[in-house]
Amino acid sequence: MTGKPRLESSCGACCWIPLFALRCEEARRPELAAHPSALLSPEDPRRLWQVSPLARHAGVKPGLTVSQAIGLCPALRLCEPDPVHYDEQFTRLLTALRDVSPVIEAAELGRVFVGTDGLERLYGAPENQVAEIKTAVGRTGGPAVSDCNITVRPSACPPVRLGWGRGKFVSWVAASGARPGQAVIVQPGGEAAFLALQPLAVLPLDPDTHRRLRQLGLRTLGDLAALPEEAVVAQFGRAGRRLWRLAAGALAEPIVGREMPEPIVAALAFFSPVADREMLAQALEQLIERALKHPRRTGWRVQQVRVRAELERGASWLVETVLKDATAERGRIAARLKTRLEQSPPAKAVERLAVEFTGFAPGTAELQLFARDASAAARAGRRRALRHAAEEIQLRLHRTMLHHVIEVQPWSRFPERRYALIDFEA
């Protein structure tokens, strides 16, 4: 059976709305735009997550504790996070962009790559493509913003920064240098000249690598690209090769889209708010079992799971996990979600809990034809795991160490004649 072609695009646009979650709050509470404000972290409500430009001018930074931030800026307005609302707004943005191009890759909350290969036949030059993307973003309503001296209301075009270029890195660097509501376009062939003037901070660097590059006297991507590639590899290994090629414009990572299957949702509303983690864990298992029995799940294994919760006084809680191996076993899915529940529990009692399957992987041919419930999917998963284990043993030991036991002469008086061992074929 021929697989479906991958949705890829060599050229694309990066659509970036900085501080997306905070902008969503400002859209709901317009008075925040005129005051220094900050969002509390969903994982640790004692620390800040996103900070407005006005608060930054007062010295407030993400990661500070609430007491430290108030000490620096007594007028700071704090907002409890509502991750479910931010996710809904981001989904609206993705849906609007999908009307422009089928190749959409979400990098993080507020940053999306839009594949543009073939759009020239519909819209023309890159400038027209960017204008169409900006129009699509404007149809979402967009969050309000007060960025420096510019104030944009919810009814106006949101402060999206757009970058167009070949590959994800070039388009992202272009978007990071664009002004709110404007776009930077890097024409094909001009990547190296454009990147040469950009600071090292645009590279995906860890703090230690950034410090080492600065100690070598490197300040821009042009400084890094001027060094011999092998010299950079000798210092930083395989990661150094990728960094050098990105800086030189020699590596253009394509934008990879994926089909957006209709999610499977199972929800439960509690008669009274629940704060006990054991009860929440039991509720999670029940919801997973219910979602696995959904008819649309037949023939598919679960790859990505999201848990949403509506909390007391209008707050929300959201965790998402991607399973290393797609599965249809309730226990494996529940174990991962229980771990996330222990690591970052809801800050308040839960009024409504929902489990959502958002990513799927196709099952085997047998699974697609005969699976009718989660038990059949689990059996198919165990058979696949056994085959993989047999292959690994054979590769390591150069001979088969697993066997099937079959009946040969069950009527024989000699036990060794009743059964025989045959190699297990992976």
What report would you give on this structure?
This protein is an alpha+beta fold. It has three domains: 10-185, 3-Layer(aba) Sandwich (MutS, DNA mismatch repair protein, domain I), CATH 3.40.1170; 201-256, DNA polymerase, domain 1; 264-362, DNA polymerase, Y-family, little finger domain (Dna Ligase, domain 1), CATH 3.30.1490.100. Helices cover 39% and strands 25% of the residues. It has helices at residues 20-28, 53-57, 66-72, 83-98, 120-123, 126-138, 168-176, 191-196, 207-215, 221-225, 229-248, 277-292, 330-343, 365-370, 374-397, 415-418, and strands at 7-9, 11-16, 37-40, 48-51, 77-79, 104-108, 111-115, 145-147, 150-152, 161-166, 183-185, 255-257, 264-274, 300-311, 316-327, 350-362, 403-407, 419-423. A five-stranded mixed sheet has the order 6-7-2-10-11. Strand 14 (300-311) and strand 15 (316-327) form a beta hairpin. Helix 12 packs antiparallel against helix 13 (330-343). The radius of gyration is 27 Å and the shape is globular. It starts with 6 loop residues before the first strand and ends with a strand. The model is unreliable at 142-157 and 364-374 (pLDDT under 50).
What's the SSE blueprint?
Blueprint: E1 7-9, E2 11-16, H1 20-28, E3 37-40, E4 48-51, H2 53-57, H3 66-72, E5 77-79, H4 83-98, E6 104-108, E7 111-115, H5 120-123, H6 126-138, E8 145-147, E9 150-152, E10 161-166, H7 168-176, E11 183-185, H8 191-196, H9 207-215, H10 221-225, H11 229-248, E12 255-257, E13 264-274, H12 277-292, E14 300-311, E15 316-327, H13 330-343, E16 350-362, H14 365-370, H15 374-397, E17 403-407, H16 415-418, E18 419-423
Helix pairs in contact: 12-13
